[in-house]
Write a structure and sequence with these properties.
Number of helices: 15
Number of strands: 13
Helix content: 40-55%
Structural class: alpha/beta
Radius of gyration: 22 Å
CATH topology of the largest domain: Aspartate Aminotransferase, domain 2
CATH architecture of the largest domain: 3-Layer(aba) Sandwich
Largest sheet: 7 strands, mixed
Shape: globular
CATH superfamily of the largest domain: Type I PLP-dependent aspartate aminotransferase-like (Major domain)
Strand content: 15-25%
Order of helices and strands: HHEHHEHEHEHEHEHEHEHHHEEHEEEH
Number of domains: 2
Distance between the termini: 73 Å
CATH class of the largest domain: Alpha Beta
C-alpha cells in the first residue's frame, strides 16, 4: 500500500525565507529595449572593431573546461601596476564592487551564537550608494546613514560625532559619491578617516568613478602608509569601460586584505572576466582617451543644463553623471521615457534628493538627444 505525500505549497516554503529578506525590495534594473540608456553611468563607447576581433579570438582560445588558474594572479599584478598599489599592500578581485562590499560586511559580521546586542555598525554619508546599507542588513550589521549638507557636502561634525557614538566597524567614503557626483573636501575626508581609525574601525574608500575624478586617495596611502593601515581602496572596471565584464578590485594593507580574502568564494572571477580585463589593461590608452572625452563632454553638458529654463539646480560633477533638480522629477522622468530616453529618478532615495534626476554623461550625440528630451519634458 502506498501513501501520497501531503501537497506542498509555496507559502510553506516561503516561511523558511528570512522575514527581513521577504520585506526587502530586490535591486531592479529598468527595461531599456529601444531606449537611449542614460541611467546607469555606462561608458557609451564600444571597443574599436580591430580590438573586438582581437579580443574575440583571444576569448575563443580559452580553456573553458578548466577552473580559473594562474591568469587570476596575472590580472592582480596588472591591476596593482595600473593603480600604483603601495608597497606592503595586496589586492583581491570581486565580481564587481557589489561582491567586494558583501565580502567586507561578511568578514566583519558577528559569528553564530554571538550576542545580537553587539551588532557591528556600518556607517556612511547619505544619500550614497544603496549597496552599503543593503549589504549591511543582509549580513546582520546595523547601518547608520549620516546626512550630507543641503549642497551634498560632507557634514564633518556630524560624521565625527557618529563615529564617536557608534564606533563603526566599517565606514564608507565614496570618492566621488553616487548619486551626487561629489568629490568631497580632501581635509574633511582625511579627518574622518583618522577618526574612524583611532577607534579601531575599517574605512573603505570607494573610487568607482576614479577615471573621471581629479584626485585619488591612493596617493596619500602611498605617501603615508602607516596613517592608512586601516584603509581599503575599492575600484571597479565598470566605469573604466567594462560594465559588462563585472570586475572590481580591493587594495589594502596585506594583513587586512588577507582576512577578507578568507570569505571570498573560490573561483569568483571567471576566465572570461579575467582575460577581458587583462586585454583592456593592455589597451589602457584607448580607455583613458574615452574617459578624457567623457570629461570634456561633461563640461559641455553642465553648461547646457545651467542655461536650460526649468533646471532649478545643476551640481558640479567629478564623475560620469550629473545631478539636476527640476520642479517635478516624476513628470520630467516620464516625459523623457516617453521620448525614449531613460535617466534615473533619484528623488525618492532620500529627502535631500527631492525632485532630482541623475543623468549619465554620454558622447556628444547621446547628450544632445538627452538634453532635447529633458527640455521637452520640463
Amino acid at each position: 500500500m502506498t501513501t501520497s505525500a501531503a501537497p506542498s505549497t509555496p507559502l510553506k516554503a516561503l516561511a523558511r525565507i528570512r522575514p527581513d529578506v521577504r520585506a526587502m525590495h530586490a535591486y531592479s534594473v529598468q527595461p531599456s529595449t529601444g531606449m537611449l540608456k542614460m541611467d546607469a553611468m555606462e561608458n557609451p563607447f564600444r571597443l574599436p572593431a580591430h580590438l573586438q576581433a582581437a579580443l574575440g579570438q583571444r576569448l575563443g582560445g580559452l580553456a573553458l573546461n578548466r577552473y580559473p588558474g594562474e591568469r587570476v594572479a596575472d590580472l592582480q599584478a596588472a591591476l596593482a601596476r595600473h593603480a600604483g598599489m603601495p608597497d606592503g599592500h595586496a589586492l583581491i578581485l570581486g565580481n564587481g564592487s557589489d561582491e567586494l562590499i558583501s565580502l567586507i560586511a561578511l568578514a566583519c559580521a558577528l559569528p553564530p551564537g554571538a550576542d545580537a546586542g553587539q551588532r557591528p555598525v556600518v556607517l556612511a554619508p547619505v544619500p550614497g550608494f544603496v549597496m552599503y546599507a543593503m549589504s549591511a542588513k543582509l549580513h546582520g550589521l546595523d547601518f547608520v546613514g549620516v546626512p550630507l549638507t543641503a549642497d551634498f557636502e560632507l557634514d564633518e561634525p556630524a560624521m565625527l560625532a557618529a563615529i564617536a557614538r557608534y564606533l563603526p566597524a566599517i565606514t564608507y567614503i565614496a570618492y566621488p559619491n553616487n548619486p551626487t557626483a561629489t568629490l568631497w573636501d580632501e581635509g574633511a575626508v582625511q579627518r574622518i578617516i583618522d577618526a574612524a581609525g583611532a577607534q579601531g574601525g575599517i574605512v573603505v574608500v570607494d573610487e568607482a568613478y576614479q577615471p573621471f575624478a581629479s584626485r585619488t586617495l591612493i596617493d596619500r596611502m602611498r605617501a603615508q602608509a602607516q596613517r592608512h593601515q586601516h584603509v581599503l581602496l575599492m575600484r571597479t572596471l565598470s566605469k573604466f569601460g567594462l560594465a559588462g565584464v563585472r570586475l572590481g578590485y580591493l587594495i589594502g594593507p596585506a594583513a587586512l586584505v588577507a582576512e577578507i580574502d578568507k570569505v571570498r568564494p573560490p573561483y569568483n572571477v571567471s576566465v572570461l572576466n579575467c582575460e577581458a580585463a587583462l586585454f583592456a589593461l593592455e589597451h589602457a590608452d584607448v580607455f583613458a582617451a574615452q574617459a578624457a572625452e567623457l570629461v570634456a563632454q561633461r563640461m559641455v553638458l553642465i553648461d547646457a543644463l545651467r542655461q536650460m529654463p526649468g533646471i532649478e539646480k545643476c551640481w558640479d560633477s567629478e564623475a560620469n553623471m550629473v545631478l539636476v533638480r527640476v520642479a517635478d522629477a516624476a513628470r520630467a522622468y516620464e516625459g523623457m521615457k516617453t521620448r525614449k530616453v531613460l535617466v534615473k529618478n533619484v528623488s525618492t532615495m532620500h529627502p535631500l534628493l527631492a525632485n532630482c534626476l541623475r543623468l549619465t554623461v554620454g558622447n556628444a550625440q547621446d547628450n544632445a538627444q538627452m538634453l532635447a528630451a529633458l527640455q521637452a519634458s520640463l
